[in-house]
Amino acid sequence: MSTVVLVAALVAAGLIAGLFYAYACSVMPGLARADDKTFVEGMRGINVAIVNPVFLATFLGAPLLAGVAVFLKPGPWVIAGFALLVAMVVITGVVNIPLNNALENGGDDYAALRARFETVWVRWNIVRAVVSTAGFACLVAAVVTRRS
Q1: What sections of the protein cross the membrane (predicted)?
Q2: CB neighbours of 57 closer than 8 A, spacing ≥ 6?
Q3: pLDDT tens digit string along 69-115?
Q4: What is the DSSP letter of 57?
Q5: What whole-number distance in Å separates Cα of residue 132 and Cα of residue 13?
Q6: Domain limits of the chain?
Q7: 6 near 147, Cβ under 8 Å?
């Protein structure tokens, strides 16, 4: 059972790391080319659309499943993966979500909203992409070392 949970955590972590990677290398660079109103309204639409059961199950499921895997069969790679995935959730909750909320509730001065949002959000998205990818890599190492 512990291997099934670990593999489920690994898959969820890979999906979420891939999502943040996709934002870093395509979504945000694409939106960066847009005018201020398009940028703000585009991000507002994305922020509403992403809060859905599939995303939430993956985003919260990766650290939750990794935590269960630590409980079932602790090891250094599983613990590290769990810690990194928890860090990803914390970064999102402390930085990205408040920025998203400020963007949503900031009115229609698109240039000012974008100026307060874009650079900080992009920087921290890259951080969480790296952190979630590292968490994924640790879970890969946990699976590989269990099989050896």
Answers
A1: 50-72, 79-99, 126-145
A2: 12
A3: 999 999 999 999 999 999 999 999 999 999 999 999 999 999 999 99
A4: H
A5: 7
A6: 2-147
A7: no
